[in-house]
From TrEMBL, chain A:
This is Cytochrome c subunit II. Residues 1-27 form the signal peptide. Residues 31-134, 177-291, 327-415 form the Cytochrome c domain. Residues 294-330 are annotated as: Disordered.
UniProtKB/TrEMBL annotation, chain B:
Residues 409-526 form the Glucose-methanol-choline oxidoreductase C-terminal domain. Its cofactor is FAD. Keywords: FAD, Flavoprotein, Oxidoreductase. Residues 233-319 form the Glucose-methanol-choline oxidoreductase N-terminal domain. Belongs to the GMC oxidoreductase family. It comes from the Bacteria. This is Choline dehydrogenase. Pfam families: FAD_binding_2, GMC_oxred_C, GMC_oxred_N. Residues 11-43 form the FAD-dependent oxidoreductase 2 FAD-binding domain.
Amino acid sequence: MTQHVYRHGLLMIMPLALLAGSATALGADQDQLERGAYIARTADCTACHTTDEDKPFAGGLAMPTPMGDIYSTNITPDPDTGIGGYSLEEFTRVLREGVARDGHRLYPAMPYTAYTKMPDEDIQALYTWFQEGVEPVHQENRESDIPWPLNMRWPLAVWNWAFVDTGAYEPRDDKSDEWNRGAYLVQGPTHCGTCHTPRGLAMQEKASDDTGKGFLSGADLGGWHAFNITSDHNSGIGGWSDDEVFSYLKTGAAHGKGQAAGPMGEAVEHSLRYMSDEDIRAIVTYLRDVPAVNDGDEMPRYGHEGQGSDASRLRGQDSSDGQHTGENATDGAALYLGNCATCHQADGSGSPDGYYPSLVHNSVVGTSHSDNLTQVILNGVHRANNDGEIFMPAFRDQLSDEQISALASYVQTQFGDPDAKGVDVGRVKEIRDDTP
Amino acid sequence: MAREHEDLQADVVIVGSGVAGALIAHQMSMAGKSVIMLEAGPRRPRWQIVENFRNAPDKMDFQAPYPSTEYAPHPQFSPDNGYLIQKGEQAYDAQYLRVVGGTTWHWAASTWRYLPQDFELKSRYGVGRDWPISYDDLEHYYQWAEEELGVWGPSDEELGSPRSKPYPMAPLPLSYNESTVKTRLNDNGFYVVTEPVARNSRPYDQRPTCCGNNNCMPICPIGAMYNGIFHVEKAEKAGARLIPEAVVYRVEAGEGGRITAVHYKDPQGNDYRVEGRYFVLAANGIETPKLMQISTSDAFPDGIGNSSGMVGRNLMDHPGTGISFLASEPLWPGRGPQEMTSVVGWRDGDFRSEYAGKKLHQSNVSRVDQMADQILSADGLLTGPALDERIRDRASRYVQFDCFHELLPHPENRIRPSATHRDALGIPKPEFHYAIDDYVRKSAVHTREAYGRIAELMGGTEISYSDDFANNQHICGTVIMGDDPSTAVVDGDCRCFDHDNLFLATSGTMPTVGTVNCTLTVAALALRISDTLKREV
């Protein structure tokens, strides 16, 4: 059903409006603007290009690279500082090849390696929307902090030649329309692989689609672990039901499996929750078919049963007892009961409606990749979905590195894998220092 | 001999780290001024207070999760630590905290604005005093305070205090208990409204939504309810320096009465001297006048700011009476916060020339453990399902109302430093001379009739009145605000008449106690002080 969306997309963007004379002043019809806006949501352009909510798409987000910070650019239609002067061909070249109007090459932090899969008609709709649906903001772009000679960009041409498979998505005849739509969305605009596919020595994604080895098999990025989301039962999401994957993508939560925070929470908040149910289902269908990659896990991350509550052990303590409740206490059970159990419950079961997630049967708790758990305790969760806001307070100002290490280790062993190796205090400090 | 420390000086020195002091510290730090906040008590992490509460045998003892320290004692009642010395016919058994963040750790979070009439009690009704400022002077600061603290309030009910903007948040839905009783009373001539409170109904200011733990007092375990500690932390992030366990015992005045320094002791008794350009005393309505009265010198023999003799006098509170009964139907108090509604029809009226205005409020505290205690004391042999059924029946039908009566300012109601009782650091304990006036007693007779009518409307049985004029921790009048330096301690800007660079940020400045919780007004006055300081410092 969905394959026709871009095959027939031609129909949508054939400038019917122009012919019919029912266009806006600049010639875009409402359908095309809406389509462009939808694609911009799908591609989550705002994630990197909006730093100030009052100036959408004006750029300026710092993105750390090993060589120095680079900054996202102004993609509002301002003619001087934005992309107001871009022709459709120039705009297309940015998305397809990563080459700007003046000929300089973009760093692949801009996922043109994925956007290249967009068909011409989608690029045109996106172009129309950026030119006519976005308010121009005059804001100069910021030079990267990368020093000479590393800031020379010509080697990127070589990088592109070696690693980028330029060109629009080619539907596979042996797969359903839904599968093809999902494949296009995952490989293209939603650019899942940017985080979920491991990178090679040259920082290239090791695979750009399901035919490559390791596609979507998980990676560490920016202090978070983007999980293996291949179809493997234990290491990936093969054990999740279709409805669970759908719910996770649409709302950020799948009870008994996991909840989105950090960059994935942002992807849900800014992008996925706005996508049509049909498109989300197409993504689910495709993900089901991504070749399994097993990392040696003997059970799924969410499979652990939990060890129950320690509340009775700590009740009736003298309240002046410094070992358990002193300011510097590092008894994980006491820290858990005092800081977390009010919402997540003493036995980790959360609330019946799942607003406060169960920590038992929870991917983030049950994995040996502990960064996400540490991140959430340090910096909290704040994610909007279509029903409201999901919020967990940050504990970085309430607890020391030692306490967060003790608490996270307790949560891991009590509600996840009892043999987990725990969370290293040094790693807590690193993540604290790397996050605002 | 006081230790001189080069770093112990700041543009603004603030004594006390409760909501008032912390708001000012935050504002002045953001304005680029150097700020030192001195707090007598220790820093206590929330999670530790939560665990103390869970381990405490008496859940209704709101002081218990905050152990008093030797060096900066605060009142403890089970057992009584003897910190408050009572000399009057009525005990003033205030429950305040000396801890970083102050007493809003265990408040009800009720954030009412006063009525415009509350500022004009004398000229309208011939009793009490007028404020030197009007409601209109404070409206902007009320709004600002509501935004700082994060207040929810009703948009469709008239509360009598005109607003320039809506409340920052909409209220959570009322509990079944409160919505049932509210409807019944409003159908029968009462005026019951949803109470404005500093509690989140959505994520606000990096704090979560209230999830109804129903122990707002003594501790909100998740920080959905506002506590002063939030502005302490904001102030520190903005650059303010907090020194906990710094017990200020002397305010020092120099040339022309300007304050030059405050002196504090650490828990070991070592002395420190802190210099500043401007000083704010924000150590509540008891410790502030105590500190001022013990800061005597040749130039100020009656203490700091006390040329009027009014420091420590005009002590007010909201003497409360109550009723409890079992309703004829289950109401299940205990879902949601501890209190969400108030009866406000008697906050104002011509009767105020004769007797006290007041606010009544229904409790929504879970009564399961209290009922279980009562039942087991009465019948220790009851066990199993019969016991459960008994607890369920009584806890679900229990109704309690309490109230605030407006006491008038009387100079003979006072707090002063004890001449005979001192704490571990040798600092005098607070001594109270306090009595309930006829203005309140007369009103309480009417209140009892209203309570009786409520019980009747709810089919109440086992009706029990409490007529003890309970203290409600709204400590007003003790460093009173006014126009006339001979009868007041501070002017309308909360600046001491005797000391140009000394401001008092406490409910003690309030010339009338009104009929509602005073914290929002304290916060508004504090923000108003910060505006004055920004112009001068």
